[in-house]
Amino acid sequence: MSISISSIAIFVTIILYLIMMLLIGFKFSKTNNTVDDFYLGGRKLGPFVTAMSAEASDMSSWLLMGLPGVAYLSGICDAFWTAMGLAIGTWVNWLIVSKRIRRYSHKIGAITIPDFFSKRYKDQQNILTCVSALVIIIFFIPYTASGFAACGKLFHSLFGIDYHVAMIICAVIIVAYTALGGFLAASTTDLIQSIVMTIALVVVLGYGTSQAGGVDAVMDNAKSLAGYLSLTSTHDVVGNVAKPYGIITIISTLAWGLGYFGMPHILLRFMATEDEEKLTLSRRIATVWVVISMAISIIIGMVGLGMSKAGVIDTLVGSESETIIVRISHVLSSHGVFAAAIAGVILAGILAATMSTSDSQLLAASSSVSQNILTDFFHKKMSQKQSVIVARATVIVISLISIFLAWDQNSSVFQIVSFAWAGFGAAFGPTMLLALFWKRSNRNGALAGMIAGGAMVFIWKYLLRPIGGYFDIYELLPAFILALLVNVLVSLATKGPSKEVIEEFESM
């Protein structure tokens, strides 16, 4: 079987997948009669779609590229504690936040996160709306750009297509089904994308293990490397030695889980669910999928290393390790047309992971501009039809900015993701938790905490963390703690909420 035929089979599979995403966008384009339909799907999401849409939009290409790459290079320690933090954060977020924000947002008529903050605190000046919308724009536009860049790099590495051409084509497809179909299209495609991601993980695990010589061969190779299977040290390939992974680093890594409380694209899924009582089922589905998928991702890193040891794939260094699944897919595609089509599905899974996050981010960022800044803050009067048109136009404009930011082929995808995750987690996480569970919290505290958290992410990342030592921890943790403290202290130091706000809170 020639390589060219295999490449064609892969290409056709991916193209068919992309066409399916577009058709879904067209299907739901006629259902968006109001902005509530466009941004929340009329609050009609079922439990399964809610769960899988939330997790698909959460995981991004990090699940299929970043996590296996970390495990390949340094062993299971760093990957395990990161996954553990995310798994705990996923479960707790679904457990304590999902039902309450669904109930609260529905009662006060909030359709976006900035909208929720403003109506929760009865902010007549819409200052909270404006600031939180700016936070979303600041962190989501580059986040979306990183997704576009990942798509461009994937097609460039697979087919030799010019990076810029590939990136623009992928961006156009994501923009098309998002702008046309809105939230329901994004959520439905996310469901499909989560299925494709799952297929990719399972096939790669099974095939990769067989190519590496079986489970015993993979484990023997891992055991032979110093610190590779330890949870308190990492493997250093230079000299085959174990490097300590201290308690501070573990706590810092676990802090990834705090980010969930502030992720707009995940919180919106809670708000959009059809029946809050069904969120219990959604929580179970989401948590099980997250735990199993991340565990498989880590194991794929071990399997990939076993394949390198067996000479099936090249030994990968540095950022090359993030291409493990791509390399395994290439080996699979050499077994004939059918195998190449399966490889295409796997690679579509990587594409799906990126697209499922980008579409959700586009919606969140566009709602911040069109709904929160134009309508709420500047009081632009628009009909429902006009609002939907503006929403779609905003998706396109934000995408153009994201394309511009992603133009540099050498831009770092995962560093941007990590930083944006910290930004949302710190700015919105404490604000959301206190808004939902502390009735003494007020607008001043929410505003001060939001600004303090967002600012500290920048300060810690660029000024304090480079110092090293005790400062060398993930910026989300100190920024989250500071935002929480500032919110509480400012709320206590200023006038308490009105009787109306208190009564509304107590009725939840």
Gist?
The protein has 508 residues and is mainly alpha-helical.
Number of helices: 19
Residue-averaged pLDDT: 84
For the record, what is the CATH homologous superfamily label?
Sodium/glucose cotransporter
SSE-based structural type = mainly alpha
What global shape is seen? globular
CA(first)-CA(last) distance: 64 Å
CATH topology description: Sodium/glucose cotransporter
Q: How many domains, in number, for the residues?
A: 1
User: How much helicity do the residues have?
Assistant: over 70%
Number of strands: 2
Radius of gyration from the CA trace?
Answer: 23 Å
Regions with pLDDT < 50 over 5+ consecutive residues? none
Largest sheet: 2 strands, antiparallel
Beta content comes to under 5%
Q: How would you describe what is shown here?
A:
This protein has one domain (3-411): Sodium/glucose cotransporter, CATH 1.20.1730.10. 75% of the residues lie in helices and 2% in strands. It is built from 19 helices and two strands. The chain has helices at residues 3-28, 35-40, 47-59, 66-74, 76-108, 113-120, 127-159, 163-211, 215-223, 247-254, 264-272, 279-309, 324-333, 337-377, 384-405, 413-437, 443-464, 476-493, 499-506; strands at residues 233-236, 241-244. It has a two-stranded antiparallel sheet. A hairpin with a 4-residue loop joins strand 1 and strand 2. The protein starts with a helix and ends with a helix.
